[in-house]
Amino acid sequence: MKSYETVIGLEVHVELATETKIFCGCTTQFGGEPNTHCCPVCTGMPGTLPVLNKKVVEFAMAAGLATNCTITQNCKFDRKNYFYPDLPKAYQVSQLYLPICRNGGIEIEVGGLKKVIGIHEIHMEEDAGKLVHDPWEDCTLVDYNRCGVPLIEIVSEPDMRSAEEVIAYLEKLKLILQYLGVSDCKMQEGSLRADINLSVREVGAKEFGTRTEMKNMNSFKAIARAIEGERKRQIELLEYGKAVTQETRRWDDNKDTSFAMRSKEDAQDYRYFPEPDLVPIEISDEWLAEIRSRQPELRDAKMLRYETEYDIPAYDAGIITGSKKLADIFEETVAICGKPKEVSNWLMVETMRLLKESEMEPENIAFSADNLAKLIGLIGDGKINRTVAKEVFEEVFKTNINPVQYVEERGLSMVSDEGVLRSTIEKILAANQTSVDDYHNGKEKALGFLVGQTMKEMKGKADPGMINRILKELL
Fold first, then answer.
1. What is the dihedral of CA 411, 415, 420, 422, to 10 degrees?
2. Mapping DSSP to helix (H, G, I), strand (E, B) and coil, where does residue 269 land?
3. Are 83 and 76 in contact (CB under 8 A)?
4. What pLDDT was estimated at residue 473?
5. Phi-psi region for residue 155, left (φ > 0), alpha (ψ -120 to 50) or beta?
6. Distance CA 60, CA 70 (A)
7. pTM of the prediction?
8. Which of helix, strand or coil describes residue 287?
9. Paired strand residues for 156
10. Of 46, 209, 318, 377, which is the most exposed, with the fewest CB atoms less than 10 Å away?
């Protein structure tokens, strides 16, 4: 069997985090009753005129700068004409000839090897509506709420060669966009969707094979499976001497296979022409410099700073900065309590454990930096031990309770009265003569047992260090 190479390029559609749509004042809020977030402008009623949302342009510029693109300082919109029920005006306002960002790229790392994935362009456009298929009534309904929601489309070069590289690229891109604040990137809500352009060719061949496109993929797991499935399908066709058809396909993750939807369109099929209702956009040097000055610290730079400034391990820095939410909590908590290693430990161990058990994403964390700092303060001040702290943190994680009040109300403060501890330990020793003898005979484990029995008697509210000291003294 011949050896084949997979060639992959992505078109990533990103919903921007503006409050209103790209050409009108309708809300971009997710959900809502069907056809309640729209107006004559976004549904393309005759006689209406669009007005460009300035924030959309600024978000697109920010994304372009963060992905090392050249900003097109004189750009414009075009009409992309096609007839489909979810597009009431029968055209989409997009950018073909002069996209706002061009010729960029981001670096990924897979298997210890670094590689730059080129970005051909980033352009602004409006979203279409949504078709809702009703199998019970055997009909299709249209919800126009999403019409006119602002998007940027990030078009990569065909530089990826595996599903692993694609996922690494998407994860890097997602983090950049979240750190910038230009999108929440919630794939389950359609804020980040990817179209996969894939072809195969014999290893060593210079020409690309015929590509297919799988549209609107909205989970990393489905994307990886779709790439592997389409790769195998195309290789099988070529092995049997058949041709790959250029077409748009739909991936069915439940059936683990793809289906042909329609022949793949090229630009000429959409009859693009300049949008006559919108003036060209002129981005001044001053405006561009202002956007550049607002760019936040991105993940790669933040990781390096955490290692040097906070002296935390590279692995910990990588996990914490892998979520903007976690990174924000880390920095805010450190600013309050001044204990970076302690904060890192709580995020890396207990927070990650509870996230996994709750099947939650870090973006959904509800507890505040202030309450985490208070919990760390209680430990540092000797008010509670770490065993009690873990129990309290579970409540902080679930309901963001004030740990100071919680400890006071439930009487969880640590007993540090030496007289009380000494009296309790004497009772434990009297009741466990066998363990006392074992300790005197050189069995160190016996001491651990006696510490545990004391902690149990004190209901966990004692200082293990003090217990150890008194036990050794009495023994």
1. 150
2. helix
3. no
4. 67
5. beta
6. 12
7. 0.84
8. helix
9. 119
10. 46
CA atoms of 61 and 74, how far apart (whole Å): 12
Rounded to the nearest 10°, the torsion over CA 289, 173, 301, 71 is: -20
Which stretches of the chain drop beneath a pLDDT of 70? Answer: 1, 264-268, 414-423, 426, 434-439, 442, 444-446, 451, 454, 457-466, 468, 470-471, 473-475
**Regarding beta strands 212-217 and 247-252, do their DSSP bridges make them parallel or antiparallel, or are they unpaired?**
parallel
Encoding tokens for residue 410?
Answer: 């439930």
Helix or strand holding residue 221 (H, E): helix 220-239
What CATH number was assigned to the domain covering residues 418-474?
Answer: 1.10.10.410
Residues carrying CATH 1.10.10.410, the chain: 418-474
Q: How far apart are CA 170 and CA 8, in angstroms?
A: 13
Q: Are strands 91-94 and 78-81 parallel, antiparallel or unpaired?
A: antiparallel
Distance CA 133, CA 120 (A): 35
47/36 Cα distance (integer angstroms)? 21
User: Distance of CA 68 to CAs 64, 100, 242, 314, Å?
Assistant: 6, 13, 41, 25
Tokens 């005129």, located at residue: 49
Q: Exposed, middle or buried by CB within 10 Å (0-12, 13-18, 19+), for 374?
A: buried
